[in-house]
Structures are given as structure tokens and as C-alpha cells.
Specification:
Elements lengths: L1 H19 L3 H12 L4 H8 L5 H35 L16 H16 L2 E3 L4 E3 H4 L29 E3 L7 H8 L3 E10 L11 E11 L4 H16 L5 E5 L5 E10 L16 E10 L1 H6 L8 E8 H9 L4 H4 L4 H4 L3
Helix pairs in contact: 1-4, 2-4, 5-8
Bound molecules: adenosine-5'-[phenylalaninyl-phosphate] (FA5).
């Protein structure tokens, strides 16, 4: 019978459409189309009024059944849309996106740059791979000189038998190139990674940070050196710091000095950190050796200069109470997030 086929077709069609419905608007359109006052189903009773009782019974049963199932499809689609809406909650503030931060080392670089700019130094950059001349020869450390043993060196394999290159063992290697490049008078610092072929422990790494500074002019002298380094340590540690200069040996300075700062932990009363001495050794320094000035092509009778250099990691460790240098260069987030 045609009516039966029509009903089945309508159901089939409705079933497909209700499955694809995406939002309230589409659902309402379907409701009007299949269940609304002007829909085929609403109009259906008038179509069967001329049928026999037997036929009416058969068709009527199917009609009731299909109407119920389409109402059911409508309800299901409505619930589904509601669930989707709940899933996409426009009021939900969302997951917080974790923000990165500057590593303590980068923060320290910024701080030391700011301090030295304030004191009147330029900040320069220098290569991490340097020539043997830059790292040693220019600095009065000739080949086979026992002083070279002070720095355990990581050499770059020399393939062409030309000038030898290495991972810089100290930032002092910038001295001659920078004087040659900028000329005198000059005040500059450089900082960054240096590398040594060394076993690591809590206070030694094979890759660590140094900062070197030089001042060359007609009257740069030890009093200036003392002022500049003391001022730096005070600003770095944010407190009054006393310093002590002792004789020390470095081939590129004459006289050569070791700089100690008054222990920041015990105010020089004597503690474990300063080994009861009241002082902590933090830097090497001195007046730039005439050999170095000559290497840079400077008239050493007219110009003189001072130089200083220290291990930045050790300063960071002192300032923040870090007891293992290796954690500074690790990427352990538990550490990084503390600063
Ligand atoms: C030098 O490297 C000299 N260039 C410093 C200098 C500059 C002297 C200018 C005179 C004039 P030294 O080898 O002592 O010196 O190293 C300087 C600092 O680097 C040390 O005081 C220490 O703080 C740090 N240091 C040395 N070896 C290590 C290491 N393996 N791990 C971490 N820090 C280190």
C-alpha cells in the first residue's frame, strides 16, 4: 500500500537527517518538518479516513509506531546537542598555559651587563672557539710553557695542519683581539662559556661561565681595579662587601693578583664556606702584562691597563646558596622554576 511505503520512506529520511543534525537551529527545522503542525505525520489521520477498518488498523499501527520513533529520534538528537554544548563551555576559563621564564644564568647575564654598563664598561661578545694564539700565545703563555698546564684544554682536531683551534679555556682570550679591534682607551667586559678538560664535582664543571674585564688607558691602575671590582661585587650581592687583594700568578698580568671578598655568609666571622678565613677567593686580576699590550700593537710605555676575571657560576652559587655547580647547567625544571 502506498501510505505504508510513504510512512517508511519518511521514517528513513527522518532517521538520516536527525543523525546529522548539528545545532538547535537545524533540530528545530527538522522538528517542524517531521513533527510540526503542517507535517506529513500531523496530516496523516486525514489521509486514512477513507480506508477500511482493517486497513486503518494496519496503517494506524505503523503510523503510531513511526511517530513515536521519530519523536524518539528528536529527543536523542536534542540530548546529543546539549552534551556537545556542555563539552564546549564558552565560560570555561580554559587551561592555564604555562609561561616560560629566563634561566638563572640569563638573569645573571642581564644583571652583570647592567652593573658594568653603569660602571662605564662596554659589553662585548667573543667566540667560544678561538685560536691557540688568542687563548695562549698573545697572553704570554707560549707553547711548551708549564703555565699552559693551568688550563686543561679541549683542542679541535687540526686537519689541515694550520693554526690550531680550541674551545676557549678562559674569557681572557678576548683581550688582544678586542684591543686590536676597538683600540685604546678602552673599558670592556666579555662573559660566557669556557671549557676545560676536567673531571666534574660539586664546584667544578667541564663547561662553566667566566667574566673577564679590561681597562686600558694612560692611567688605568690598581686603585681603579680595586674600586671597579668592589663596586661590582657590592651591586651583584646587593650588600656592602669588603675585598682583599693578594699576590697571584697569571702569565698575562704583572703584578698578578687574587681577589677575595669578605665572606657573605658569616660577615667575615669565619664559617664553613670560607673555611674560617672570613674571605672567599673569587677572581684573578692584575695589571696587563706589557707582553699582552705589545701583542695587541699598543705602545706599552704610553698605555697601561688592568684585567680581572672570575668564575660566574661560583658567584651565582654563592649568591643563591647553590651547592652543586652541575645543576646550574642541567635543564631540571624543578631547579629552573625556583628563580
Ligand atoms: C683564569 O681563567 C684567568 N683567565 C683569570 C684572570 C683573568 C686572571 C684576568 C688575571 C686576569 P682561573 O683558571 O683561576 O683563572 O679561573 C678563574 C675562575 O674560574 C676561578 O676563580 C673559578 O671561579 C672559575 N673556575 C675555574 N675552573 C672552574 C671549573 N672547572 N668549574 C667552575 N668554575 C671554575
Amino acid at each position: 500500500m502506498r501510505l505504508i511505503e510513504d510512512l517508511k520512506k519518511i521514517f528513513q529520511e527522518a532517521e538520516n537527517k536527525f543523525q546529522d543534525v548539528k545545532n538547535d537551529k537545524e533540530l528545530e527545522e527538522l522538528r517542524i518538518k517531521y513533527l510540526g503542525r503542517k507535517s506529513y505525520l500531523a496530516n496523516f489521520p486525514s489521509l486514512i479516513k477513507n480506508l477500511s477498518l482493517e486497513e486503518k488498523k494496519e496503517v494506524g499501527k505503523l503510523y503510531n509506531d513511526i511517530k513515536k520513533r521519530i519523536e524518539e529520534l528528536y529527543k536523542q538528537a536534542k540530548n546529543l546537542i546539549k552534551e556537545e554544548e556542555i563539552k564546549f563551555d564558552f565560560d570555561d576559563p580554559g587551561e592555564e598555559i604555562e609561561q616560560g621564564r629566563k634561566h638563572l644564568i640569563s638573569q645573571t647575564f642581564e644583571k652583570v651587563s647592567k652593573i658594568f654598563l653603569e660602571i662605564g664598561f662596554s659589553i662585548v661578545d667573543f667566540n667560544q672557539i678561538v685560536s691557540e694564539k688568542e687563548n695562549f700565545d698573545y697572553l704570554n703563555i707560549p707553547v711548551n710553557h708549564p703555565a699552559r698546564d693551568l688550563w686543561d684544554t679541549l683542542w679541535i682536531k687540526n686537519i689541515k695542519n694550520e693554526e690550531r683551534y680550541l674551545f676557549r679555556t678562559h674569557t681572557s682570550c678576548f683581550q688582544v683581539p678586542i684591543i686590536k679591534k676597538i683600540g685604546v682607551p678602552l673599558r670592556a667586559i666579555v662573559y660566557g662559556k669556557v671549557f676545560r678538560y676536567e673531571a666534574t664535582d660539586r664546584t667544578h664543571d667541564f663547561e662553566f661561565l667566566q667574566l673577564d674585564g679590561i681597562s686600558v688607558s694612560e692611567d688605568s691602575n690598581l686603585a681603579h681595579l680595586k674600586y671597579v671590582t668592589r663596586r661590582f661585587f657590592q651591586l651583584f650581592f646587593d650588600k656592602e662587601i669588603s675585598i682583599r687583594l693578594r699576590p697571584g700568578y697569571f702569565p698575562f698580568v704583572e703584578p698578578g693578583l687574587e681577589i677575595d671578598i669578605g665572606c657573605i655568609f658569616c660577615n667575615q666571622k669565619g664559617c664553613q664556606v670560607c673555611k674560617k678565613s672570613g674571605f672567599i677567593e673569587v677572581a684573578g686580576a692584575g695589571m696587563i702584562h706589557s707582553f699582552v699590550l705589545k701583542s695587541a700593537g699598543i705602545d706599552f710605555k704610553k698605555y697601561q691597563g688592568y684585567a680581572f676575571g672570575f668564575g660566574l657560576d661560583r658567584l651565582i652559587m654563592l649568591k643563591h646558596g647553590i651547592n652543586d655547580i652541575r645543576i646550574l647547567h642541567s635543564s631540571d625544571l624543578r631547579f629552573i622554576k625556583q628563580f
